[in-house]
Write a structure and sequence with these properties.
single chain; alpha/beta; Rossmann fold; 2 domains; five-stranded parallel beta sheet; three-stranded mixed beta sheet; elongated; P-loop_NTPase; KAP NTPase domain-containing protein; KAP_P-loop
Length: 442
């Protein structure tokens, strides 16, 4: 299995989360809380790293695992109409996997007990036909009083099953701390997502030494609540019934480790360090999340591979990174939900230092515009007159200067940047292929 790379510097957040879970475990507390962050902020990475750290922790008194760690992927198990069935199924599957990988006899015995308890729970669901399609089929055939009686019997059986499940889960939590990690709630349909929240509450709320950690996007979750219960509902009050507290996960700051993660792309250039360092700054200014950054680099890699043969200079890398980051940022809606109409060819980008386009700062932000202006100003060295009312600006003989020269020659309506052909490392006509393929594949 390939090792994951922490490109957003989540180490401190994960350390804090790890200490929090250990403290709750020591105090035998039962809590349901969330890691709250927008889609693409790396919530899954944080949860996976937490699981990896918790799994081998050994209780110093018993030499057994300190935690029962379970992973419940809501979206992966959403083929179960009843979420409680999905939750128990995921826990049972994890108990079997953990048992297979335990060598320590004490730890093995602990997971054997967990498997037996969860198997008992699963048996109760089967016995009472909870979540089994045959129940729905039978229900549809009943009418009148018999139908009402069947509905009552079904709900009574379900409540009884939930109560018995909680008692069995308490037995597990008396052996060691139970940790349930809930991921991909964002990907579920609103009705199912709300039902998952309710079932997690029914199954685990108030059980000592039981910790449920959910990855959520609070804005999306609030929208789901409103869709189910209407806009008048107090979403904050409703969600507080299910979630004790939120840990906010920001967009993160891109770290130098990303060069290692995206080496499949960077290795196609003769040099990369200076341009990669600039990307770190630009990506942070653009507040691009890790999932969209992954997609962006993958797109650039495909387009570059089609356009160029052999290794290219660092100026091409910096040109592609600037083009790609701004293309991504400018394609997003502004605060009013409107889209800019200048995103197709980015003809204004080479003129960023002196041209004014209405509303542009709503998309790029003042910081991004100032950064681009600064990089272009650094690239320009002197001006030469080539006609009565026409001038060309000489650019510096480095990767930044040549990258702006490429942008100007490929995108600008009026080309104004000049570079001594002796110092050029790339053929502009060759770079045109990148833009041609980008128009098709972006």
């Amino acid at each position: 299995m390939q090792e994951t790379v922490d490109v957003l510097n989540r180490e401190q957040f994960i350390d804090m989360l790890y200490q929090l879970v250990n403290t709750m475990s020591d105090l035998k507390q039962g809590k349901i809380f969330s890691i709250d962050g927008t889609w693409g902020y790396g919530k899954t990475y944080v949860l996976e790293e937490l699981e990896r750290r918790l799994s081998p922790v050994v209780n110093e008194d018993t030499y057994d695992d300190k935690f029962y760690v379970f992973h419940y992927n809501c979206w992966q198990y959403d083929y179960y109409e009843e979420p409680s069935v999905a939750i128990i199924s995921a826990m049972l599957e994890d108990s079997e996997n953990s048992l297979e990988h335990r060598i320590n006899k004490v730890a093995k015995a602990g997971w054997e007990t967990a498997k037996e308890i969860l198997a008992e729970v699963a048996g109760e669901y089967v016995k009472n036909k909870i979540g089994v399609n045959i129940v729905e089929t039978f229900q549809s055939e009943k009418t009148g009083i018999d139908n009402q009686k069947f509905k009552f019997d079904k709900m009574f059986a379900f409540k009884k099953t939930l109560d018995e499940t909680r008692e069995k889960l308490k037995r597990m939590s008396e052996i060691k701390t139970v940790v349930i990690v809930v991921d991909e709630l964002d990907r579920c349909m609103p009705e199912y997502a709300i039902k998952v929240l309710e079932r997690l509450h029914h199954l685990f709320e108030g059980i000592p030494n039981t910790i449920v950690i959910m990855a959520v996007d609070s804005k999306q979750l609030e929208n789901s609540v409103k869709k189910i219960f209407g806009n008048a509902v107090d979403t904050g009050r409703y969600l507080r019934k299910f979630i004790s507290f939120n840990l906010k996960l920001g967009v993160g700051a891109l770290q130098s480790k990303y060069v290692e993660k995206y080496n499949y792309y960077f290795e196609k250039f003769e040099e990369k360090d200076a341009a990669a360092e600039e990307l770190q700054t630009l990506a942070t200014l653009c507040q691009i999340d890790i999932r969209n950054l992954n997609k962006l680099i993958e797109k650039l890699d495909i387009i570059h591979t089609l356009a160029f043969k052999g290794k290219m200079s660092e100026s091409v890398l910096w040109f592609e990174l600037m083009w790609g980051m701004i293309k991504y940022k400018i394609s997003l809606p502004d605060k009013e939900g409107k889209y800019i109409d200048r995103s197709d060819d980015l003809y204004w980008l080479p003129e960023i230092d002196h041209a004014t386009y209405g509303g542009l700062d709503n998309y790029l932000s003042k910081d991004i515009i100032e950064y681009l202006k600064e990089k272009k100003n650094i690239a320009m060295t002197n001006t030469r007159t080539i006609g009565m009312n026409s001038e060309e600006i000489m650019v510096s003989n480095d990767f930044n200067g040549e990258a702006w020269h490429i942008l100007d020659q490929l995108l600008a309506h009026k080309k104004t940047l000049y570079m001594d052909p002796v110092n050029q490392t790339v053929d502009i006509d060759e770079c045109k292929k990148f833009i041609e393929f980008a128009k098709i594949l972006w």
